[in-house]
Design brief:
- The longest helix is centred in the N-terminal third of the chain and has 13 residues.
- The protein has a 7-stranded mixed beta sheet with strand order 5-4-3-6-7-8-9. Strands 1-2 form a two-stranded antiparallel ribbon.
- The chain is α/β, with parallel strands linked by helices and about 220 residues long.
- The two termini are about 30 Å apart.
- It contains 6 helices and 9 strands, in the order ααββαβαβαββαβββ.
Length: about 220
């Protein structure tokens, strides 16, 4: 059960921070964030803060989820690739806005737990995979939209190659040690156009499949 007073307060805060896309706000409203955080943090689920999850990862603060989703300009027929499933919250928000979400994470346990959450919420348009997110999902390419939820030094070339004509890719980049910035790429007939946006902080984008931490 979504905590109505807290979600209303969160939505008002997001609007105040510049989230104006009503479809994005509606998707945030319909997605119970408390189901994507550890039980110990459930009472803080609607605070506009990141929270820790398993394997040393985090669930991004609602503002960043809403901001990146708004940047993507997702339409109802879009096919979206997400790199970094994490808790599954970002994918669940996207699933309410597009035709299909493909999401990849290097931690098998995170993917399995996210899949259970998707099933519990009757979100059947999300396909998951454990793998190297830096390689994307070539078998399903091209993608209309790509979202990367971990920061690398550059956008992996494989992801740019898998972006459809007219497609949009949103990702954090580490410009120098300790400094990250959000970027948006668009594939145009003339090539790749890049926008440099706000400073952010994400976990690092790493290659390969991860060795699981024992809990």
């Amino acid at each position: 059960m979504i905590d109505a007073p807290r979600i209303i307060q969160l939505l008002m805060e997001l609007r105040g921070q510049g989230i104006t896309d009503t479809r994005v706000l509606s998707a945030i409203e319909m997605t119970p964030r408390e189901q994507f955080v550890p039980e110990a943090f459930a009472d803080r689920a609607y605070e506009n803060i990141p929270l820790p999850i398993a394997q040393g990862q985090t669930i991004s603060q609602p503002y960043i989820v809403a901001y990146m989703t708004q940047l993507l300009e997702v339409g109802p027929r879009a096919k979206v690739l997400e790199i970094g499933t994490g808790s599954g919250y970002q994918a669940a928000v996207l699933a309410r806005l597009c035709r299909r979400v493909y999401t990849v994470d290097r931690y098998r346990s995170l993917v399995q737990e996210a899949q259970r959450r998707f099933q519990a919420l009757d979100l059947h348009n999300i396909t998951t995979r454990t793998g190297d997110g830096m390689k994307g999902w070539p078998e399903q390419a091209p993608f209309d939209r790509i979202i990367v939820t971990a920061a690398g030094r550059e956008v992996p070339a494989a992801l740019v190659e898998q972006l459809a004509e007219g497609g949009v890719l949103v990702a954090p980049l580490e410009e120098k040690p300790g400094e990250q910035v959000m970027v948006r790429l668009r594939r145009t007939p003339e090539g790749i156009a890049r926008e440099r946006l706000i400073p952010v902080r994400f976990v690092p984008l790493l290659p390969g499949v991860a060795e699981e931490r024992q809990v």
